[in-house]
Design brief:
578 residues; alpha/beta; GMP Synthetase, Chain A, domain 3; Beta-Lactamase; Rossmann fold; seven-stranded mixed β-sheet; six-stranded antiparallel β-sheet; disordered N terminus
Length: 578
């Protein structure tokens, strides 16, 4: 079992005696592996060049935790649990990123004349001597598990300094005026400062799992921000003179009009980063201080999630699967941009048999490439829009049609007609909740009888941040939080035990890591279908809310709070949005 951080720091006061010790001898001496197992592993190691410890772990002969504790016992040093150790970025960065990754080490604590350093392999004398030379301090050793170290390095060695430095270099390179002709001519020059800066921005975004990158010219400079778990975080602020160079370069990559800065433009391009293909959706918007650029990052080849893996409650999941088994009708998934609608739609497609059914998707862009499906990418530049593709789709004899998004009345009406004529149609729509969706369709000009006869179900969803498992602790509700708990769950709910992350190195001090879906479903029945054809929205709303009593997104979020999955504050934020 990994020791407490305070115990680790105290136990590391005495330096480990540096002597040449072979890992294999240590493991055999402590009966962690047999001599025969060691010999076989050493023979295999000669042909692969892997570290012996990694060979033994991959072969299942020893666990990572047993290896770490065996080394710690031999050297009489502590094992540190990086998931709970209170790391500080300024302390970690005392050691540059390159040697930290090369020697698999991290600076844990700064004690002035001494540094507590965690090593994956504390027997590596060369790494110890190299770090002593670089840090110019006396080192105290601890052992850290490799699986915990790599995420820590990714979090703390963000490319902020590199991005800031490249931005300054680009500012000096550009001077007071931007030579757009020179920038266009440098498209293939990978050493150009603008190219290196953009590469660093994208690599940082990929490293921290950002979904979007924002380049925002402001009066005081260019602000570069990333959206992580739905929340924007500022990466750096640079001189606003480089904004035009960056937007110009991005437009070239997306094949947009580089001379047009007065109108919004949309485009896309593909990047190759860390052996992954990343689709980038680019949007430019003219603002007071220059063009604002927002880029949505979509990973090609990302594993499609199953319907039972996205967080949908069991009762809703059962009904949704029954609806998907029907031969016709319209199913809508609603929510704001970035709420996971496409993930839900594709998870629904995963429930269907593509071998016995003809499934056609119409998307902008195609986010998941799946075998057995006919997938169409819309292209507004050649008038290949949603409506035009949908008009042609029925002649392809489909069983299931997925429309990426209903954006206008024409697309909505064609989709509903397809549902009426014997096709199962899945699509998304931007609405706040499930109850308001039928009226959104009516507001778009779709005939009421088509909505009543075709719409089978509406799923509204949001993404909720999870409490960090490493720092979640009991939380006393504020008066406002207690009032919300009572309003949603009843008087006794306000006194229930809740959790909230206090912030640690694993979650970058936010208290949250990752997100999960929160859903509500309005299933249309005869009464609701009849009410939808009337001009009285209040009657329909009352019936719909009675049908969904206790099963709204707010109630689902409350259940996650009581289960300890998220905080009251996060659930309140979701409820206010919906």
């Amino acid at each position: 079992m990994l020791v407490d951080p305070k115990e680790a720091a105290a136990a590391a006061q005495a330096p480990a005696q540096r002597q040449r010790i072979r890992l294999g001898d240590v493991l055999v001496q402590q009966n962690l592996v047999s001599a025969e197992q060691l010999d076989r592993a050493l023979q295999q190691q000669r042909g692969t060049g892997k570290k012996l410890g990694r060979m033994l772990i991959d072969a299942g002969l020893i666990t990572e935790e047993a290896l770490a504790h065996g080394l710690a016992r031999q050297l009489r040093v502590p094992v540190v649990n990086l998931k709970s150790f209170p790391l500080k970025s300024e302390t970690v960065r005392l050691l540059p990123e390159s040697p930290a990754r090369r020697h698999r080490a991290v600076v844990l604590e700064d004690k002035g004349d001494q540094l507590l350093v965690g090593f994956v392999d504390p027997l590596d004398l060369f790494a110890y001597d190299e770090l002593t030379r670089l840090l110019k301090r006396q080192l105290r050793i601890a052992v850290v598990p490799e699986s915990q170290l790599l995420p820590v390095l990714d979090r703390h060695y963000r490319r902020t300094e590199e991005i800031t430095g490249l931005a300054k270099a680009l500012e000096e390179d550009i001077g007071d005026a931007v030579d757009f002709g020179a920038l266009q001519a440098s498209v293939g020059q990978e050493g150009a400062p603008v190219v290196r800066l953009l590469q660093s921005v994208f690599e940082d975004a990929l490293q921290v799992g950002a979904s979007d990158v924002h380049l925002e010219p402001q009066e005081g400079g260019l602000v570069i921000r990333s959206r992580i778990d739905g929340i924007l975080q500022t990466q750096t602020t640079a001189d606003k003179r480089i904004a035009a160079a960056l937007s110009q370069r991005l437009k070239l990559m997306a094949a947009l009009d580089i001379s047009e800065k007065r109108l919004p433009q949309d485009g896309r391009f593909t990047l190759r980063l860390r052996e992954r293909n990343i689709d980038v959706r680019l949007s430019t918007l003219p603002s007071q201080y220059g063009e604002s650029v927002v880029m949505r990052l979509l990973g090609q080849g990302d594993a499609m999630r199953r319907l039972d893996e996205i967080g949908m409650p069991a009762d809703m999941l059962q009904r949704f699967r029954e609806i998907l088994g029907r031969h016709s009708g319209l199913v809508l998934v609603t929510g704001p941009t970035g709420s996971g609608k496409t993930t839900t739609l594709y998870a629904a497609l995963g429930e269907m048999d593509a071998e016995t059914q003809k499934i056609i998707t119409v998307e902008d862009p195609i986010e998941y490439r799946l075998p057995g499906l006919t997938q169409v990418q819309v292209n507004d530049k050649i008038a290949l829009d949603f409506a035009r593709v949908l008009r042609a789709t029925p002649r392809q004899d489909p069983d299931v049609i997925l429309v990426g998004e209903i954006r206008d009345a024409e697309t909505a009406e064609i989709g509903l007609r397809a549902a009426v004529t014997g096709h199962m149609v899945l699509s998304s729509l931007h609405t706040r909740d499930a109850v308001g969706t039928p009226f959104r369709l009516l507001d778009m000009g779709v005939p009421a009888f088509m909505v009543a006869s075709s719409l089978q179900a509406v799923i509204a969803q949001r993404l909720l941040r999870r409490n960090c498992e490493n720092c979640a602790e009991p939380h006393t509700a504020t008066p406002q939080e207690a009032g919300w708990l009572s309003a949603i769950g009843g008087e006794g709910t306000a006194g229930e035990r809740t959790l909230r992350g206090r912030g640690c190195s694993s979650c970058n001090g936010t208290g949250y890591t990752g997100r999960l879906g929160v859903y509500e479903m309005l299933e249309m029945d005869t009464g609701l279908a009849q009410a939808a054809t009337h001009t009285d929205p209040a009657h329909f709303t009352r019936l719909a809310r009675e049908k969904m009593a206790g099963k709204t997104m707010a109630h689902r979020a409350l259940n996650l709070v009581l289960f300890g999955t998220t905080s009251v504050a996060e659930a309140m934020r979701l409820a206010s949005e919906s």
